[in-house]
Amino acid sequence: MIRGVRQFARLLKISAILSRYRLDEFLEATHLYRPMSLLRVFTPGGKELADRPRGERLRMALQEMGPIYVKFGQIVSTRRDLVPPDIADELALLQDQVPPFPGEDAQAIVEKALGKPVAELFGSFELAPLASASIAQVHAATLTDGREVVVKVVRPGIRRQIRRDIDLLMTIAQLAEKYWEDAARVKPPQFVREFEMFIFDELDMNREASNASVLRQNFEDSDDLYVPEIHWDLTKEQVLVMERIHGVPISDVARLREAGVDMEKLAKTGIRVFYTQVFRDNLFHADMHPGNIYVDVSNPQNPTYIALDFGIVASLTQKDLYFISENFLAMFNRDYYRVALLHQEAGWVPHDTRLEELEAAIRAVGEPVFSRPLNEISFGELMLKLIHVAYRFRLDIQPQLIMLQKTLLNIEGLGRELFPELDVLAASKPELERILREKHGIDNTAKELRERLPGWLAKLPDMPGLLHDYLKQANDGTLTTRIDRRDLEALRASDRTTGHATARAIAGGALFFSGALMTALETGPWFAWGASTLGLLSLAAGGWLLVRALRS
């Protein structure tokens, strides 16, 4: 009861803020909210705001609602596949700066988490924060040996506040899902669940430290990107201690030029860092806005990026990674049919999609982009347009792909700000080709095979028994397997016309043919004669089942 009253009071306050900023389109999104528009009578200050763009009014309202809604707006701005461009552009301007909490509270949190007084843990600890954000704030400190560090401390009570606001957001999202006509496309509850996942991940400093540690290892021998060192002995769930770095903010172009930095090289290095993180390491910093990037200008002709804030780091499935890389190469070569084919093979569009229609739609998106001057081509923008095309063909895109697209847009935007004449195509294509050539070259392939071989050999003793069981079940008509829903419908149609036994036999034959193919591809006769023999047996068994099916 008390919780419900508090939620209603919070909802009323939010409604009053939305009303004051004349966000009628949001107030009228659901039947419940329509009466809330009456609040504008009691909310002064709306007249001078009415003529401002809706994106600006929404941004200002989120800032007034509080830090969690600022963070929510930032996450929303990354979903350009769902949010209108004017709103996404404005929300991307949200600055995650909020009033700091007392330094004495931060010190108490550090001491409780690490179990010792600050005086024993550090040589010095500054109570005045260097920066304050919605999730945590940062304090300068030195270790007992004099090394400079920063101490990131999670805000006290923030988890409880986030839980309260997310519950409220979910309530609003569920109402919007029920009454908003565009809800089927935007899926508000799923949107809030994504936000919940991201925001709670950011509360765990151990997770952020792990992200930083892996990125540092990936670029340990590189001059392109520097990741500060994590001090694990001083890092807990609520506290992160990291090497303090000094550099020039990437947004301070004037200082970079004054330092004599090679701006063209810096811009191209940013492109290389992005492709390396994504396609070589499959772990990329997904929050690369200007506030999280500095530049080491000690060697102006060979500047190095410095990454900060590792709360949002993303990766792709191996399947998506492969198809994304192939899609990029196909788009670089303007091979629109291959892009369409890859979309179908990846399962991003239904298998009954007509490739000629999809190819024509992709060409209609790609050609206007490639017709621009080279220094105006944006693959982030192209990727976004492809997502909208795919929606027409019933695509359900994964959040990780949206994070990739958003990160690419950020990198390209930074590159163009540093060096307006940047040719993204010329900088991107050779980097991707080089990475894939190295990744799928003979040496790496042989290494991967050597690593997998023991596992394959360990499974060999079980294979004859498994094969016997499969053959027996297939012969008895008791073989069951998990299949795709569309394939199930096809099998049901087959059952109606040719009988249940025939369908089972065909399914069994397809299974064994697939098993033979997988065995041949994964092992090869030069590695495991036994596995290859089983592959031939599977092939023979599959052929027998298919012949039996055709005769029935």
Oligomeric organization of the protein chains: single chain
Distance between the termini: 67 Å
Q: What's the overall average pLDDT, rounded?
A: 78
Backbone CA Rg: 28 Å
The percentage of residues in β strands lies in 5-15%
Q: Tally the helices.
A: 24
Structural domains: how many: 4
**Cα shape:** globular
Describe this structure in words.
The protein is an alpha+beta fold. It has four domains: 2-95, no CATH class; 97-158 and 178-245, Phosphorylase Kinase, domain 1, CATH 3.30.200; 256-440, no CATH class; 457-551, no CATH class. Helix content is 60%, strand content 7%. The strands form three sheets. Strands 1, 2, 3, 4 and 6 form a five-stranded antiparallel sheet that branches. A four-stranded mixed sheet has the order 5-10-9-7. A hairpin with a 7-residue loop joins strand 9 and strand 10 (304-307). The longest helix has 23 residues, at 500-522. The protein is globular and about 70 Å long. The relative contact order is 0.06.
What characteristics describe this protein?
552 residues; alpha+beta; Phosphorylase Kinase, domain 1; single chain; 4-stranded mixed sheet; 4 domains; disordered C terminus; globular; 5-stranded antiparallel sheet
